[in-house]
């Protein structure tokens, strides 16, 4: 009953996380597109930086943006913040209920680092905090005079943390923590910089003082960073479904390429929204394509030794013994693993018919990569993986 309740808790938290996350991403995309579509008009109100004409749902909208702020603010001013806050809170709850409560299965891989659960959890929490402090410190000690250099430093910082995660966590644990790190930075940008700066501007207006223009510029810089990090973080968050990513021995390299692909795509869309001529941002298209091609090449399965191709010494009984030892604890009608009440995704590997049916999936998860068993709790050896792969190849898998 407890596992049943926990499973429903996971479903509800994940559902909530998706809803508020979609809201946050939607507002981020909209406001960046709106900001880039602003134009100078012949007739504008005093203090207005630019205006945009929009059409949606059969209606026309005329939106103004002030260079700093208007002389006075209405009482019904709308603040966009709770989507970011709730996305972070629900995301951390998911990290806790899935990865912390089942640290030995999802977070720890003894072949990478033989950690106790409390050690892995402590590294996780501290790394998220240190990641934000490092990013925020970098932003506060640099100017936006050279935005490309600042972005490159942020890129190196994230890749550096990815290398750290790859050396202490399991593959899926490492990828989800890159996503959690980036998500923490994005949410903290809203909570610690963007909203506080907007409140300072509003307070200055209410008291009759002139707002500091630097406050708005800082908020805009953080907002742009959030916008460019959105596409990479989305893939990191669903990476546990793709062993091609989480099972790669050099996960940090894939993280670097994913950051480049996502940023290039986002740049293409942003500059298109801004109405820039294509000749000014054409380089983003081949840049993203090359990074994507490198990621695909890096994840291509490598040919195994000749011994793997020879399945003459691998019998059906050998395969059943391997799956009984390393798979059946989770993938049986009644799992014995404490983290599952039902076989994950309904997959049962206790008989040859089911093993043959799902052979391509088994090969991807347990032969071509070492994603399964989770955290390699059962200590599956490379020889056993190769034997299983040879049997699958011989049986048309």
From TrEMBL:
Keyword Membrane among record annotations: yes
Protein's UniProt keywords contain Transmembrane: yes
Keyword annotations: Membrane, Transmembrane, Transmembrane helix
InterPro entries assigned to the protein according to its UniProt record, in alphabetical order: Cyt_c-like_dom_sf, Urate_ox_N
Family matches, as Pfam families: Urate_ox_N (PF06181)
Domain Urate oxidase N-terminal, first and last residues per copy: 5-296
GO molecular function: electron transfer activity; heme binding
Listed transmembrane segments: 12-34, 84-103, 115-135, 147-169, 175-195, 228-245, 251-269, 281-302
SUPFAM superfamilies noted in UniProt: Cytochrome c
Protein name according to UniProt: Cysteine desulfurase
